[in-house]
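Weekly structure sync, notes
Attendees: PL, DS, HV (note-taker this week)

Item 1: Elongation factor G
DS walked through the input record. Source organism listed as Rhizobium azibense. Sequence as pasted into the shared doc:
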Amino acid sequence: MRCFTVLGPSQTGKSTLVAKLASLEGTPRKSLSPYGSSLTEFEFGSEGWCALDTPGANEALALAQDSLLASDACILCVSPAPDEAVLAAPYLRAIEASGTPCILFVNRMDEPQGRLRDVIAALQAYSSHPLVLRQIPIRDSDMVVGSCDLISERAWRYREGQPSALVELPESAVAREHEARSELLEQLSEYDDWLLEELIEDREPASDALFAIASRILKENKVIPVLFGAASHSNGIKRLMKTLRHEAPPVEALRSRLAATASVDETALAAVSFHAYYRPSVGKTTLVRALADGLKQGAALAGASLGSVQEGGNGRPLAGGNSARGRIFAAVKSDHLPAPALLTAAEAFAPPAWTTPPTPMLERILVPGTERDETKLSATLAKLAETDRGLKVMQEEGTGAQLICAQGPMHLRDLRRTLSEVFRVEVTDRSPNPIYRETISKPSNVHYRHRKQTGGAGQFADVQLSVRPNERGQGFTFGETVKGGTVPRNYIPAVEAGAREAMEKGPLGFQVIDVDVTLTDGQYHSVDSSDFAFRAAARMGVRQALSEAAAVLMQPVVRVEIHIPSIFSGSMVAIVSALKGQVLGFDRDESAKGWDVFRALVPGGALDELARTLRSATQGIGYYTKAFDHFEEIYGKEADAIINAHGSGSHPN
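Item 1 (cont.): predicted structure, written out as tokens:
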């Protein structure tokens, strides 16, 4: 079986394209995962094929990346509108990083929206591989009514609901065809010395030789050939499928590519897992592509035995119970299989780094509907995080509530639906509590005596403490300058512990940072003093000192790296400034053509707004990575509003 992924932006007709390709010669078999990915098996040219169709939303880019892991080649489906080329930028970036041979298909050519050359030029801005036009459109006025293949120089006229008809190339298109063919031959000659010599000698190369050169160049991933059509009318579909059949590399090339990128012994590499999901009453299902013969139920894979193996397209038991090389199958009751992963009989290896999904930007607290749901939620989220690498699961600081980081609103919606429909766990979501700190702006000295007398032994501890602000980022420090044994050495650790406890919540209602506490003197009682008494004295004494030391509210400042296509860079300064951030600069992204990396410092409380604004300003393409940088002071009305909403103003002592 040969396998390819169809990927691209939303509304480019990917699903229609897959359906038409799969229906060229018979009835396809299709399955769908809860995440919106589909797998379609079909026959073409006496061979078995599998098409992987991934959602077009940028939030689902991780699914496309994982599908490339199991694909011999891919089809990038794009719009015929030049100004929409930027929407394909994330997919071109993922394709080039993966090293997957690609065919670019300009769909919906029945909708006149611009010149094909303009579309290719706009897309070339985001591709390090040359985009090589393999066809030219035949037009009747503004409508595309056919195509001419630039290698065979045969022209075809589209017919609604019927195969295209072979026709003479219209006289009006001859000059354009000659020009485009010359450009094609020049581009191909850069990768073939024989062809270069033929062109220099002004000899016309044979079509068969040119097809062979084009096939080799695609297998070697040197160029991206460009075809076009209209999937909804079946225009250009058969030409696309024939190109895949004759020019896409076999599964052995995928095995070699994966082994090289992950430094795995190629002869030991048996399979690659690329997608996993949970089904009610079934459990975890892992989609696996066999890279060697003989995988069946009970076979050793990733250090354990395979459970039940099913056909990927319909869930039936695998015919013959045995998976041939290249076949995709569903492994059930094989919870030991991670996805994605490179699999040998004895071990599972992490996938290549290019499969790492974009950093999730949407943080939400999941609130279970019932006590039963609360009990199940943590374990359920852990399962989902195993099958969805675009999801991060943590606990909220302070409350311990379930905090998830999702790719965006659609990803969050799909997560909640999966929790409800598959695991029967109902949740709502809310924004996490903002993280603030407080410190002090001046020193304070305090003398605190803890005395308590009840029946039996009493409690006595007397401490004199000096509380002073530390430098930013220095944290909490403790020291002592006690002389003459006024506080016995064995009680000093209790004083430090009490001082640390006082840091947990300051007079403004937040954790206290960057403070030095020094024990300068004190008294003790030979009978009533204890660790507990000195700990209590220090805790209460430091709290008193903090209340007298001019507390200051602190907000986190985060260093962000915003990854965006270059055409959006100009809007970033205004966006960061509006969030009271500081622009640090930007550079070209050396790993992706046409992209910039924009660096800034942004208040932590503005990250949610940054994510929303960034998605809006970049049509959902831009994303950021973040790292905590420092805390800084907030004053005035802004500080008062935060204290009233989240600090001591909302939780009076």
